[in-house]
Amino acid sequence: MDFFQKSEAAMFFHVLTLFPDMIRDGFTTSILGRAAEKGILSLEAVNIRDYTKSRHKKVDDYPYGGGAGMLMQAQPVYDACQAVIEGIQTRKKTAGEEKVRVIYLTPTGQVFSQQLARELAREEDLIFLCGHYEGIDERVLQRIVTDYVSIGDYVLTGGELPAMVMMDAIARNVPGVLGNEESAQTESFDDGLLEYPQYTRPEIWEGERVPEVLLSGDHAKVEEWRLEKSLAKTKEVRPELYESWAESHQEYFVKKAKKEERLRRKLLKEARKKAEEEHF
CA 41 → CA 12, 38, 50, 179, distances in Å? Predict the structure, then answer.
């Protein structure tokens, strides 16, 4: 059993990899490490090489049809995955019935997002398959993989770093992992927008002041300011996200236009009153 593998947890991560120490080391510090120590998260890092039938511990071979590099073989990957699934079934006493999502980290998969992170956080067990070399024999992928996921349009040496990125993002949505549950609800992408700017002490640094509205104590005005800043930042940096949000929040812009019109009329009325007073 791994140091971070718990018998009872809110989320069980199982990682099939050729470099289990790399996965374990990424799970020992900060928020994930504390959540694992509390038993909220569980990590099982499985060395695929332990399941090869080769006496030389070989897990790869040349691809049929030629080409550069080596491919990971089907047998050790399949047997490692089956061992994990059997362990899950034993833990949950659901032999032959348990359906577990197996995620293969690959540049050809759907791009990982906050929405997918929230979806996966609702699972109790997740298996991550980390490829290496030039990939994995297609036959075993078709047999065991349920989700093909990419973390971006670039190529990495293996699937370990993408798996750690995904586990971090998913874990933040698991109840109890964050000390402040509100944190997960106010971060970038959670509502479809980028996060607003934030400030802390001192109030003045290098001549730059914290925006007055954040010191006002008026929570309604603070929330309004934050939303406006999120919208402005999203529109500038990620216009496609802004357009999507705007399309589904038309009522916000209607209310904003009415509010601005009321303010305009109020200012105009005050200006006329002042002009009349000065005239007399």
Answer: 6, 8, 24, 14
